[in-house]
Amino acid sequence: MFDPKPTRYPFPEYTDRHYLVVKKNDGTVFDENYPFFDDSFPARAKRFLTRILLFILVFPVNRVRLGLVIRGKKNVKKNRDLLKGGVISCANHVHLWDYICVMEAVWPFKPDVLVWAPNIRGENGRMMRSVGGVPIPDAGHRATRAYGAAIRKYLASGGWLHLYPEGSMWEFYAPIRPFKNGVGYLAVQNGKPVLPMGFSYRKPGWIRKKVFRQQATFTLTVGEPVFPDPDLPKREREEDLVRRCHEAVCRLAGIEPEENLYPPLFDRTKRVDYYER
Question: Cα 174 from chain centroid?
Answer without folding.
Answer: 15
